[in-house]
Structure formats: structure tokens, C-alpha cells
Amino acid sequence: MPDSDHAAAVSSEATPSSSQESASHRERVIREELERRIALFDQLEDAKFGRFGAADWALCTAVFFVLPILVAWWVL
Amino acid sequence: MIRSESIYGRLPLLPEEREYGTRGAHATCFAYAVATWCFLIGGYVAQYLGAVRGMICLVTGSVIGVFLAVMGPALAGQRYGLETVDVTKPAFGQRGSRLLLLFYLINLIGWAGLILVMFGNGLRNILIGFGYEPGGWLVGAGVLLGMSLCFLLVTRGIHLMNITNAYVGPGLLLMTVGLLVLLLKNHGWQEIVDAEPLNPFDKPWLNYMIVMEMSIAAGISWWAGVGFLSRNTKTQRGAIYPELIQLGLGMGLVCSVALFSSLVVRSMDPTEWLIPIAGPFVGVLALIFVAVANISSSSISLFAAGLGLRHLRVFHIRPWWHLVLWALVPCLPFVFWPNELYGMGGNFLAYNGTLYAPVVGILFADYVFIRKQRLNLAAIFDDDPKAEYYYTKGFHWPALICLLIGQWIYFSLLDPLTYESSPAFLYLTASLPACVGPAVIYVIWLKLLPLERVWVPGEGGAEPRVSQPNI
Predict the structure, then answer these.
(1) How many whole angstroms separate alpha carbon B8 and alpha carbon B156?
(2) In chain A, how many domains are there?
């Protein structure tokens, strides 16, 4: 291999293109942020997201599932 | 970059990043629900049923469908800040969820396409209202224009869409109320009630159950959209109740006004009602407003479709506008065959039931009964074969087999293309058994053959970390 081609090959191996650096930087940043958020979510109590308890389940099931089925059946 | 990745990407949305309190969630769900697809659905229903029975089916069916679509996935999406497809990974596996991505995209892009055809028809009817006689080509050209406008809106972000919705939603409600007032004033309730359906089947019960099925399927179709909404709400109640009330009840009521209009004007095309009902001047203004609203509605679907495309590795690091552009490409058939595809909208509605009914049933069963509303967030973003949700080569076979069983149940009861049905369809619909059946089988299967490992926060063991991130 001519010296100039060898130098170019070594040079390209030793210094990745800026787009490759940018992509791996992005991946590293996103990965670190993902891990940070996962750790945060693991620590957050359910109360931070509000309550949806047994009464809500009963109300929603009765009003938005059972009642409409009964109405539709009655009309049919 | 991080902010962009959380809003336009899949990073779990932290509580402080979420856009909607309860009032905002109601407003957004309202704008989302009271959109021009209500006019489409009402028009399709007018083919089969009159006003009273049609309205009962629309309201009850959409409420039932939204309940099934929302209760599991929306709770999971809100609690963990996840978008729709990520919520499916615990049940279906990493690769299994990508199969669902196809269903998801078909639904969103199908709706966007139908609404864009309505936009094209609206442009044509506006010109007719001004006394011109444009050719049918204008509808396809309108679809192309609509696609361009959606691209501009969606690429500018969720905040601009919220501003648009803040005007479009209330405007559509005013227009709907206005339509109803004009219908009652000019035609009277009795004429509306007495109006015959446009093109019913001979058997009355078949018409009723088909409309019931379309309405439940329309409600279940919201599965594709609730993730985008739920992950952006601050509280669980703030996610669930607005979705049930606005997407279910609200949509059903607005669809009913569209039904009345279709029956009186004798056309299922919403853009053909407004001038006969409202008169030439107000009718044209209303058509212009509906055209704007169509862009808003299509943009919401395309935004969610863009988020869905992030799951594909080739789109992981693409700029947002690339994703929006690719989401628009499948809408191109609507440019060339607008009216043919528009005419198949009723079948598309029913077909959504075959896609989504089993999915929402399995997701509900998995999140509520199997995982007791606890997810391993790290495993959702981990493509390591040893990660909890990778299962067997990326597929969780119990869920996928139950999905197939659900589709088999559906097609045994109803063919959504021909509407051929079995006698059991009269009593059961097709979506309800296709949703409940797989859910029950899935729970029994996993109780008899439990999952090998289920990590629960706070119950010991090292916290899982992401080995091979898929984000």
C-alpha cells in the first residue's frame, strides 16, 4: 500500500468521523438519561402519580361498562 | 436534546415534564374526541340505523370500547410515562410489540387518511358553495395539500398542536351544537326520528349489531392514541376520567349529531350536510372551519404515528421531521383513490375491532391481574436476551397465541369486510368476546404456567439495569 494510502487508513482508524462521534455521544447521553429516569421512577411513590383506587375501579366499571351494556341490551 | 427525546422520543416522561393537569386533560381529550372523525362515524352509522337506536348504539358502544381500551394501557402509560407500544412489551415481548406496532400504525394512518379525504371533499364543497364546478381531481389534490399542512403543524411540536386544539375543539363543539339547533329548528325532532337509514340490511337486528360493533370498535381504536395522552398527564384520575368521559361519551354524542345530519340530508359525507343545513353563507364558513379541524385531527394521529416509528432501529436517531414524513408516506394511496378508500371507512372501523379487541383485553389482563400494576421499567428498554421482557427470542408466546385466538373468535362471529355473521353475533357482538376471551385464557395460562421471574420494586434483589438499550 502506498505510504499516503496507509497514512490515510491509519488516520481514519485513529480519528472517527465527526458524525460517528456525534452519534455515539448522543447514544451515551440518552443511555445515561434513561438510567437516571429509571432510577427516579423506581424511587417515586405511587402517590406522586395520584390515586386510582378500588372506588374508582368500581365506579368506572359500573358506569362505563356494565351500565352501557345493560342499556344496549334493553333497547335491542 | 434530552427534552426533545422525552417529548418526541420514548424516554419515560417524568412528572414535572407532563403537560396536562385534569383541566388540560379534559380539554385535550375533548379536542381529540370532538374531531372530524365523529362526523365520519355518524355518517357511516346512518347507512344502517335511524336516529334513536343509532344514538343509543353510538353512545353505549363508544363508552364500552373506550373503557376496554383505556383501563389497562392508560394506567400503565401514566404511571410510567410510557408511550403506547412500550406499554405492550411486558405482555408481548420486545419483538412481539413490534408486530403490534404494525396494527398501531395502520389504525393511526388509516384515520389520518380518511380525515384528509374529508378535507379534500370539504375543499371541493367550498368551491361548489361559491358557485364553481371543480372536478373530482380536487379531492386528491386536497389530500396532498392536507398532508403538507399536517407536516408543517406536526413538525412544530406538541405545544403548537395544543394551541390549535384550544380553538378547534371548542369551535367544533359550537358547530355541533349549532348543527343540532338548526336541525331541530328547520326539521324538528319528529322528522329526524322518522328518517330512514340510508342503505340498511334487510334484517333489523343485523343493522343494530353492526352499528354496535362499529361503535365498540371505534372506542377500542382509541388504544392507539391514549398512550400519547396518558403519559402526558399528571395524575391517574386525570388520565382515566377525561378519556372515558370525553373520548367515550363525548365522541358518542357528537357522532349522534352527525348521524342526525346524515339522515336528514340523506348523505353520509359530512361535507355535504353543512350548506343544506346551515345555508350557503354559514355553511361555507362551517366548511372552512371543518377543513381546519381536519388538519388538527389528522395531525394528532400523525404525531402519535411518528412516536411509534421511533421503535424501529432505523428511526432511532432520525430527526423528528424524518419520522413525520415517513408516517405520511402510507397516506399517498388516499391521494390517488380518495373516494374508493373513503367508501370503505365503515369496514375499516369494524376491522379495527379485529386488530385491537384482543390486544386491549390481553394488556388489561397482563397489567392488572398478572403484574398487579407493577412494571420493570428497565426491562422495557432492554434488548438483552436475559432481560425480563425478552422472553423467547423476543416474543411472549402466550400473549401472541391469545391474540390469534381473539382474532379467530372475532372472525367466527363477524366478517368485517362482508358483514356476514354467525347467530351468536346477535347477542355478543364480535369485539366483546374477542376482547374478553383472550384475556381470560391469558390469565388462566399464566396462573397455570407462571412467568419465570417478576421483579417488583422494594422486594429485594438488585435493581435491574439496561444492558442493551433499544432507545
Answers:
(1) 11
(2) 2
Residues A34 and A57 in one domain: no
Residues A14 and A38 in one domain: yes
Residue in chain A lying closest to B77 (CA) = A49
Using one digit for the tens of pLDDT, what is the confidence trace for B94-132?
999 988 888 888 888 888 899 899 899 888 888 887 888
Of B59, B238, B377, the CB nearest to A41: B377
Is residue B123 within 8 Å of residue B290, measured between CB atoms? Answer: no
By CB atoms closer than 10 A (0-12, 13-18, 19+), residue B341 is middle
Q: Which chain A positions have a beta carbon within 8 Å of B11's beta carbon? A: 30, 33-34, 37
CA distance, residue B245 to nearest chain A CA (Å):
9
Cβ of B263 under 8 Å from any chain A Cβ? no
The shortest C-alpha distance from B341 to chain A (Å) reads: 30
ipTM of the complex model: 0.84
Q: Confirm if B172 and B293 have CB atoms less than 8 A apart.
A: yes
CA distance B135 to B120: 12
- In chain B, which among 378-437 make CB contacts under 8 A with chain A? 378, 381
Residues A66 and A40 in one domain: no
Q: How confident is the model at residue B463 (pLDDT cuts 50, 70, 90)?
A: low
- pLDDT single digits (tens) B219-256: 998 888 787 789 989 999 999 999 999 999 999 999 99
Q: Does A42 sit within 8 Å of B53, measured CB to CB?
A: no
The pLDDT of residue B58 is: 96
Residue B355 near residue B106, CB atoms below 8 Å = yes
In chain B the domains, ranked by start, together with CATH numbers, are: 2-343 (1.10.4160.10)
- Write down the pLDDT at residue A8: 39
User: Are both A6 and A35 inside the same structural domain?
Assistant: yes
- Contact between B114 and B40 (Cβ < 8 Å): yes
pTM of the model: 0.85
CB count in 10 Å sphere of residue A32:
11
A contacts of B5 (beta carbons < 8 Å): 30, 33
Q: Which domain holds residue A64?
A: 49-76
Q: Are residues A10 and A37 in the same domain?
A: yes
Q: Is A38 in the same domain as A65?
A: no
Tell if the CB–CB gap between A50 and B67 is shorter than 8 Å.
no
A32 in the same domain as A3 = yes
Q: Evaluate whether B105 touches B308 at the Cβ level (below 8 Å).
A: yes
Specify whether A2 is located in the same domain as A39: yes
Digit-coded pLDDT (tens) for A19-75: 666 767 877 888 889 999 999 998 888 888 888 999 999 999 999 999 999 999 888
List pLDDT tens digits, range B361-374.
999 999 999 999 99
